[in-house]
Amino acid sequence: MNGVTNKTFIDLRHLRHFIASAEHGSFRRAGAALGLSPSAVSRCIAELEDQIGASLFHRHTWGVSKTLAGERFLITARKAIRVISDGTHDAAAVGRGENGCVRIGIYSSIASGFLSELLEKYGERHPKVRIELICGNADEHIAGIRQMRLDVAFLAGTREWLDCERARLWSERIFVALPNTHPLGNKDTLIWQHLTDQTFLVSQAAPGEEVRAHLVREMSALGGHPDIHVQAVGLDNLIPLVALGRGLTLVGEAMTVIQIPGVIYRPILGEALPFSAVWSAKNDNPAFRRLLSLAKVMSVKPVSSLPDQNAALWQNHDPSQ
């Protein structure tokens, strides 16, 4: 036998023929199982032995038996075939969208509403796909999409983003969260005039800046200057502050299913916040593409019964104004 070369390339065909010969104890029987002639199997085994530089079988008139090197190599060969087979299966499953991961940038609550239903239905259809949710503001999510760190972001508004695709999917009514003892709690629906003298709480985290900008716009249009307190907490801790009487805040409809003791929700007449899916056209993640297709199917019903001009108040605005 030749010595082992510095670079040893072993064909998978060699491994399969070796395993079959070891299991059947004969080149003839291995050939029958593989649909090959005994001489073809014998040549393949000889090539493999030349490649690794060791005899793998003792040849007998009745068949073959493994050498010590053959015994040890059989363990390695079976492991290699198993690993490659598993890897092929996983790759095929990912390619079909059955496995894999979808990284989603979120802006709205997933407590209820369209996004909650979308994730629930997708999970039922593709239980092996891992979902990763990332909170953040729009600019952070768009950067993630462009850099392929995110597959899709569900963002408020209908703004077009450079180098991104967008599809409007649904709208959420805007609610005011207020203490259950607040006088405005007696009203079923609120208008902005009811809120001109109120103190509002907004979060430093998304979508706090957009909420602040919208409050300033609405109150300025009525000739007022809103009293806005920015809190360094998320929405989950902002709502309890409302219960303590520290101020009111705005929430999307999906958030209203979360019942906080001492807090009630009232809708603002004519206010709707549109939501869109934003993604990169270069993204070929099959699991994501299936999620996007499902989202589009679910959104075929009207996303809002409210006039577009109301929803447009929330799009293409500059939060710094």
Short recap of the structure:
With 321 residues, this protein is α/β, with parallel strands linked by helices. It has helices at 12-24, 27-34, 38-52, 68-95, 113-125, 138-146, 208-221, 235-243, 286-298, 308-311; strands at residues 57-59, 64-66, 101-106, 130-135, 152-156, 165-179, 199-203, 227-231, 249-252, 263-279.
Give a structural overview.
The protein has 321 residues and is α/β, with parallel strands linked by helices. It has 10 helices and 10 strands. The strands form 3 sheets. The protein has a 6-stranded mixed beta sheet with strand order 4-3-5-10-6-9. The termini are far apart.
Task: List strands and helices in order, with pairings.
Blueprint: H1 12-24, H2 27-34, H3 38-52, E1 57-59, E2 64-66, H4 68-95, E3 101-106, H5 113-125, E4 130-135, H6 138-146, E5 152-156, E6 165-179, E7 199-203, H7 208-221, E8 227-231, H8 235-243, E9 249-252, E10 263-279, H9 286-298, H10 308-311
Parallel strand pairs: 3-4, 3-5, 7-8
Antiparallel strand pairs: 1-2, 5-10, 6-9, 6-10
Helix pairs in contact: 1-2, 1-3, 1-4, 2-3, 5-9
